[in-house]
Amino acid sequence: MSEDILNNNYVYWMEAKEGSNSDIVISSRVRLARNLNNLPFPHLLNEEKGLHTINTIKNAWEKSPRENLKDMTLFTFNQLTNLDRQILVEKHLISPNHAASNTAYNGLLVNEQGSLAIMINEEDHLRIQCFLPGLQLSEALNCAQTVDDALEENLRLAFDENMGFLTSCPTNTGTGMRASVMIHLPAFVITGQINYLYQNVSQLGMTVRGLYGEGTEAIGNMFQLSNQVTLGQTEEDIRSKLDSIAGQIVQQERMLREKLSNEMRYQLEDRIGRAYGILTNARVITSNEAITLLSDVRLGVDIGILKGINAFALNELLVAIRPAHLQKKAGREMESFERDVKRAEVIKEKLLREKRQGEDQDV
Amino acid sequence: MSEDILNNNYVYWMEAKEGSNSDIVISSRVRLARNLNNLPFPHLLNEEKGLHTINTIKNAWEKSPRENLKDMTLFTFNQLTNLDRQILVEKHLISPNHAASNTAYNGLLVNEQGSLAIMINEEDHLRIQCFLPGLQLSEALNCAQTVDDALEENLRLAFDENMGFLTSCPTNTGTGMRASVMIHLPAFVITGQINYLYQNVSQLGMTVRGLYGEGTEAIGNMFQLSNQVTLGQTEEDIRSKLDSIAGQIVQQERMLREKLSNEMRYQLEDRIGRAYGILTNARVITSNEAITLLSDVRLGVDIGILKGINAFALNELLVAIRPAHLQKKAGREMESFERDVKRAEVIKEKLLREKRQGEDQDV
To answer: How far apart are CA A123 and CA A42, in angstroms?
Structure first.
């Protein structure tokens, strides 16, 4: 049941072992922005037209015979609590802006695993998103296009022969596509190379952002790399360019990690050991500190300094320690300090369980 | 054999369970400054008179029938390496100034356990010191006086009917006695009460100093409390006054710990947990950081937040992690960074062994 997605810590992009290069690339995402013909863009919708929009989309979805549209649930935001919508934000399935709405015509169509999520009446009528673990942009693009084709069979979309797909914000017009990868770049940061990366990447028409998208800070050495241009290029061009840049960044990060391992072994082991020591012994911890220290632990796991911890567990923690997930788990609202206490508990429990399981496997 | 004292981490004052109030008072010390009659004070001695001094003392010691003078060894500093003299400083048996000398007439008479140590030709010809664990000023005074009496049987001391014992520095004249306790006051520091303590104590004719005596910084929340006045009071007066002040400080520290435990339980557990986590996982650690974190661990042990770690182990670590002891253990000179690596190793090993033993005892 897709309802589970509101009650567990799981999303498919956490399955590190299913993706390639997942020691560095956490997840890949492709989203396509689409709008229905002859209807105002979401920010101009009144209730009547809003409901018309969502019902039109619902019908198109229900009529589609495609396999990958079968196992989905439609949540309308008037049915969801604020906490539930935050749960979806923390899983990266909807945007913070989208979560701010609670109307009957704002909604999310999502499959059980959370690998396919279609935001309804966010900035555009439809934002078809596919999320996969590791570096899998082709697969994500393929997934999004299949869904797009399926819906298009029963929808009339706003499309211009010259411009391509029309979107609420002109920067998305054309393909309506944004492809992005979430990458973990501790060695870039430790060695100070990250500033060059910011510059180089923007010269190549790409953008680097923080963990929670536009305007958010890069914490835990996590960066979202995505295309800036959507017009005048094919979907495949955009995908292939991002794939190639991401591949180069992965190579460079791997080289820098190697360099750090060789030249600053003790300091690196110290940094990673301390992070692990704090995370398994703290009693109170903020989200930012936890994400920062989890980055060090992840690096330790990736380069073999820390044994027995799965990348899946670290991905899961990234979501499980966020405020809404903590409150969902506790079954009640919690003040900031209470959450810091609960967060420390969740992390400690998870890391120690991982270690025990790792040790059991060693035997 | 007393030679062991140069090769192990042990001194008797570490035996926390043998002392009273040793959750707060690490050790008690009484020293008596004495000088031989008709000989210049040490800083004015030439080699001939220096050798005469030390030989006179040696004879008096050898002639004494007293039991507690039997099991002692005389080290002359020309026989000891610089590293060995630093070992003695780190065990608090000689002063840093004394360690700077390497002549045949500078020396130390010390018993096997390091509870009795007589510095020869430091600032005075004789400095008789007794070191005991916990708050045991009466016992320490008794020990020092017995030794003093024994030596006096065969020595003519510089003594003035009006002034009392004459000493190289006039501030020691009279009883020649300094009594001190090493106290661990984390709750005074955390609650900011420590500054009042400094003021109050000095109004009572006492001095508060850091871990390694005069002019050293108070690290790890360790303070040395001692009498300032040596003249015009009996030994028993000095002892009893210090005993009473130390007792009051102990009570207050205990009350402040209770208060912290009740009012800031999570923060306290967090602080202690993090310290333990870092100490058992760091790969590189400076002496100052280690002593600071060991203070938090000690507090955790004392108030029952951390189980299975003995106060003895923590006392031993305070000495074992100092530069000379680390180098002795490694069997070679080490640069600062190498020592930081070795120190992290020693601490981790010790704390984890303590924990395993603690857990075995629980079963």
So the answer is: 6
The dotted CATH code for A4-256 is 3.30.590.10
Model confidence, pTM: 0.92
| Closest to A136 in 3D by CA, of A224, A21, A213 | A21
Q: Indicate where chain B has its CATH 3.30.590.10 domain(s).
A: 4-256
Write the DSSP assignment of A250-310 as a string of letters. HHHHHHHHHHHHHHSHHHHHHHHHHHHHHHTT-SS--HHHHHHHHHHHHHHHHTTSS-S--
The CA distance from B183 to B210, in Å, is 10
CA B52, B58, B64, B68 dihedral sign is: positive
Of all residues in chain A, the percent with pLDDT exceeding 70 is 96
Considering only CB atoms, A281 lies closest to which of B273, B337, B341, namely B273
Contact at CB, B283 and A270, closer than 8 angstroms? yes
Single-letter residue type at A318: L
Q: Of A10, A211, A15, nearest to A111 (Cα)?
A: A10
* Distance, CA of A125 to chain centre: 20
DSSP state of B36: B
Answer whether residue A362 shows pLDDT above 80. no
Q: Which residue of A has its CA nearest to B273?
A: A281
Rounded to 5 degrees, φ, ψ at B349 are -60, -50
Residues ≥6 apart with Cβ < 8 Å to B199: none
Residue A165, classed as helix, strand or coil, is strand
**Interchain pair A274, B267: CB under 8 A:** no
Give the tens place of pLDDT for each residue, B290-342.
999 999 999 999 999 999 999 999 999 999 999 999 999 999 999 999 999 99
Size of interface A-B (CB pairs under 8 A): 54
Task: Give me the torsion for CA of A237, A240, A246, A249, rounded to 10°.
Answer: -90
Q: State both tokens at A303.
A: 């380069």
Sign of the Cα torsion A97, A99, A105, A107 reads positive
Edge to edge, what strands does the sheet with A126-133 contain? A72-76, A107-111, A116-120, A126-133, A25-34, A177-184, A222-227, A206-209
Distance (Å, rounded) from C-alpha B122 to C-alpha B129? 12
Chain A residues in contact with B277 by the CB 8 A cut-off are 274, 276-282
For residues A53 and A60, the answer to whether their CB atoms sit within 8 Å is no
pLDDT tens digits, A172-208: 999 999 999 999 999 999 999 988 888 888 888 899 9
Is the Cβ of A332 closer than 8 Å to some Cβ of chain B?
A: no
CB nearest to B270's CB, from A266, A270, A284: A284
Q: CA-CA distance, A188 to A173, in Å (whole number)?
A: 33
Q: What are phi and psi of B337, to 5 degrees?
A: -65, -40
Q: Is A349 an interface residue toward B (CB < 8 Å)? A: no
Question: How many angstroms separate the CA of residue B280 from the nearest CA in chain A?
Answer: 7
Helix (H, G, I), strand (E, B) or coil at B185: coil
Q: Which residues pair with A178 in a beta bridge?
A: A31
- Residue B307 φ/ψ, nearest 5 degrees: -105, 155
Mean pLDDT of A205-223: 77
Nearest CA in chain A to B269: A283
Are the Cβ atoms of A283 and B273 closer than 8 angstroms? yes
Give CA–CA dist B145/B129, Å, rounded: 10
